[in-house]
Amino acid sequence: MILTVATTPFEGQKPGTSGLRKKVPVFAEPHYAENFIQSIFDSLEGFQGQTLVIGGDGRYFNKDVIQTAIRMAAANGFGRVMVGQNGLLSTPAASNLIRKYKAFGGIILSASHNPGGPDGDFGIKYNAGNGGPAPEKLTDAIYARTKTISSYRITTSPDVDLGRIGETRLGSMVVEVVDPVTDYAQLMQALFDFDAIRALIATGFTMKFDAMGAITGPYAQRILEDMLGFPKGTVMNGTPLPDFGGHHPDPNLVHAKELVDLVMPEGGPDFGAASDGDGDRNLIIGRGMYVTPSDSLAILAANATLTPGYRQGLSGIARSMPTSCAADRVAEKLKIGCYETPTGWKFFGNLLDAGMATLCGEESFGTGSNHVREKDGLWAVLMWLNILAKRRESVADIVTGHWAAFGRNFYSRHDYEEVDAEAANGLMQALREKLPSLAGQNGIATADDFAYDDPVDGSRTTKQGIRLIFADGSRIIYRLSGTGTAGATLRVYIERYEPHAGFHGVETQQALSDLIALSRSIAEIEQRTGRAAPTVIT
Ligand code: VG1
Ligand code: CO
């Protein structure tokens, strides 16, 4: 039976950088998730009888909202729902299913790298038929709808058994439970030279992959251990848990410390990698060498033709604005297009769909390509493995060799987390007002608030971050996070280009120390937020 349930709008159901994210107790309020899901459906047209992909990263509350989403999809007229077994799908795997099976779209239940559990975060995002995050136009429409919604539709049917693979019916809708890994693993096999990686393993090459108690465990075990033949135990924290086993599933040097401590010292494995809550981020380290995500994008681009999926070369490279300019130098050398977009994967969709970019990346541990329309953690790991298998050099040698050829973009992001929202907004506003007077001082050549004109659909997105660009190409960028659920997080991105190999060995914070000091004084960070130092440095 289909019910039409009366409801009233909730404040603040505004999708951020990547969907709607709130604390679990907020999502658990009666009608909260239902309102948002109905607002998504009300903003779409033409899905009657079509397929919807649904899956999540397995975090606390996933199991409940999945059942709600399935009932609402049936009540709203979808013809089929394709859902990962036990409700699990990594973000890139969901993107692949949408594309492969020509679904109308997908609903992904995840708060990505944010912690999970009863007091942790939860999230919902909608991906369109190209497999990518809903563009701004659609998220704006969804938000507008959340402010006027007065009812939602849902069936009264019992929970669907998501443990069993196969098809069942829910009214006139088919529910198809699929293995979450199989299609994704096939795609990876088509892109990368698994035989070459097996041959590398046969030389004694070792690695550790940290799934951080989140979604990539089953994917990594199947692909790295079962298919490629890395020994059992190569994947650590490989069981997806509702609270990620207490991990903060953000694969950076701070939160993936367990892995970093294993891989960095002499005698450790040759290669280390980690992914985040929903499987779209990646951390890459080699013995003694951490690869910044910005450098990783540049190195993958420079070596892409060593892999079967990219043997033909790249059409272009796109990076988010705060990501370092290392990839630009590779694009220049390859004589291919280079695009600078606002933060958030949704801005890459048009460039990928139009064939203008093949590889994309963000400084926030996100790398990906036109194989799906999301960033993809394991994809990046496999691309690195494929390149290592072909070059037979250490990660450290490949990275330092890249710097020697292209110069090094020293890069660091300083996060000031959970600062008072008013103070953070005040800081940004003051910077904006100061913009005209900043250029010409302290070696700053230009100062602006980044705006993006999409070259494909002509849409303009403004206020995407304050940029201070120095005469030597150095940059300081300020923006506020759009994924947090408490207070505001100020992100400060600092970059300096160093052409001379003799200076490439300097420690990053040291190499950037003057710019770091300037980033704090120009924005009056301590006076305005009370923070003398960042909470997380990556
Ligand atoms: C952060 C990152 C951004 C990334 C986004 C979603 O956003 O900076 O680059 O696309 O998270 O990633 P923000 O607005 O907090 O800076 V994920 O893996 O959380 O979906
Ligand atoms: Co993520």
Automatic annotation (TrEMBL):
Positions of the Alpha-D-phosphohexomutase alpha/beta/alpha domain: 13-152, 184-285, 294-405
Keywords, ordered alphabetically: Isomerase, Magnesium, Metal-binding, Phosphoprotein
UniProt GO MF annotations: magnesium ion binding; phosphoglucomutase activity
Listed InterPro entries: A-D-PHexomutase_a/b/a-I, A-D-PHexomutase_a/b/a-I/II/III, A-D-PHexomutase_a/b/a-II, A-D-PHexomutase_a/b/a-III, A-D-PHexomutase_C_sf, A-D-PHexomutase_CS, Alpha-D-phosphohexomutase_SF, PGM
SUPFAM superfamilies recorded: Phosphoglucomutase, C-terminal domain, Phosphoglucomutase, first 3 domains
Reactions listed under catalytic activity: alpha-D-glucose 1-phosphate = alpha-D-glucose 6-phosphate
Protein family: Belongs to the phosphohexose mutase family.
Enzyme Commission (EC) number: 5.4.2.2
CDD domains named among the record's database cross-references: PGM1
Cofactor annotation: Mg(2+)
The protein's name in its UniProt record: phosphoglucomutase (alpha-D-glucose-1,6-bisphosphate-dependent)
PROSITE patterns in alphabetical order: PGM_PMM
Domain of life: Bacteria
GO biological process, one term: carbohydrate metabolic process
GO cellular component: cytosol
Organism ancestry: Bacteria, Pseudomonadati, Pseudomonadota, Alphaproteobacteria, Hyphomicrobiales
